[in-house]
Amino acid sequence: MNNIIRRRGAFTLIEIMIVVFIISLFAVIVLPSFYEFGSAGSERDARMVASIIRYLNDTSQNTQSKLTLIVNVDNKTFSYPGRKGKETKIIGSLYSIRLSSSKEETKKSVTIHFDAGGLSEGLTVKLRGDSGFYDVIYNPYSGKVVIEKEDDTEKTGREES
User: Fold this and answer.
1) CATH number, domain at 48?
2) Contact 97/73 with Cβ under 8 angstroms?
3) Cα–chain center distance at 17
4) Is residue 148 part of a domain?
5) What is the dihedral of CA 69, 122, 72, 44, to 10 degrees?
6) 45 in a domain, yes or no?
7) CA-CA distance, 94 to 59, in Å (whole number)?
8) pLDDT score of 158
9) Given this model, what pLDDT does residue 68 score?
């Protein structure tokens, strides 16, 4: 009758190992997605900017009409004529814009004209991400748009035609 069960105040080694395993598993699955969160937004913005430039260039050439893109660097917006009228897209990582005929603008609004033959000068849109800069570059001679990522240590390029 001396078998009195005492309430113990500590955890066993196996209980601690199970908790550490669950926390480690959670960290392995969830943390990488948080690490890429900032750069994924900038990459998404870069793809959107490239898509808008391609859309306006192709539409102006195919319809033989003049289109206008207004880039407001302060408000981080792109305004352009879309399929349903005027469209405005917020580009949260927008840093600067530069036409080959002018200097880089980091504070102003820039109006870009797409003539019936498309955009006739080079265009570079710089986006700032957590891991570096993205440059969206339009080449008027080839009509292609390229997205380049600039890290602190290296510069890599990927074509988005």
Assistant:
1) 3.55.40.10
2) yes
3) 40
4) yes
5) 90
6) yes
7) 24
8) 47
9) 93
Give the sheet arrangement for strand 144-150, strand by strand. 94-99, 123-129, 132-139, 144-150, 155-159
Q: Hunting for tokens 């207004």 — which residue is that?
A: 70
Pick from 90, 106, 86: nearest CA to 98: 106
Closest C-alpha among 137, 141, 127 to residue 158: 137
- Region at 76 (left for phi over 0; alpha for psi -120 to 50; beta for the rest): left
Q: Of 111, 67, 107, 73, whose CA–CA distance to 90 is shortest? A: 73
Residue 128: CB atoms within 10 A of its CB come to 14
Residues of the chain with pLDDT under 70: 1-8, 32-40, 151-161
* pTM, to two decimals: 0.70
